[in-house]
Amino acid sequence: MVTPTPVEQWLGYSFHYTHNIENMKKKVEELEARKKEQNAIDASGGNCEEIKQYVMSWLAEVNEIMGKAKDLVIEDDKRAKTTGSYWTLLNLKLWHQQSKKAKKIVEDIDEVLKNSRFESRMLTMKGLMVALKDDNSNLVGVWGMAGLGKTTLVGEVAKQVKEKKLFDGVVIATMTKSPDLRRIQGEIADKLDLKLDKETLSGRADLLRASLSKEKNQKILVMLDDI
């Protein structure tokens, strides 16, 4: 691997100026989306102090990075208005400085995103367990972009719930973009050892509802995945 000379590095920052600035803007958008998810994790954590402390620390770091990115965009706008795109020594110097800043911000964003994924997964798990232990919770949701491992997380939560015996029964059914309600009803019924001898969806729903509410002293966790 050939190490670029200082001059080559300097010119590289200047010539890749537009790419570095645009890449930074895309990374900021990605960070914005991740920030919303972290806020949701904080909200779902209830009174879990560990979750709140982690999210507050993470958000403080994110806000600092995003502040630097915003300042750089403002600098870029000012430069474009005052110097245009002419190849002057002054422009090259500004391009170099701002391009280098943009690349460093991208590296910082990549690092903070990398660090957040594992921690947020563990904290999401803790937040879910806290919510499921709360007798006042009747509905708990997990949301996020595709590919984040929500299905795996749901499976891990179900495993812990069974091990800790938080519920008397755990039922998992998979939804789709075009859900087959009859199949979903069947999945839930199978887990409850219930025979659905009704033909209509509403009739089968009534049987499921009656079965779930029949045992007043039992707690049944119904998990709907891929909604």
Automatic annotation (TrEMBL):
Residues 14-41 form a coiled coil. Pfam families: NB-ARC. Residues 132-227 form the NB-ARC domain. It comes from the Eukaryota. One of its GO terms (molecular function) is ADP binding. Keywords: Coiled coil, Plant defense. InterPro entries: NB-ARC, P-loop_NTPase, Plant_NBS-LRR. PANTHER family: NB-ARC DOMAIN DISEASE RESISTANCE PROTEIN, NB-ARC DOMAIN-CONTAINING PROTEIN-RELATED. This is NB-ARC domain-containing protein.
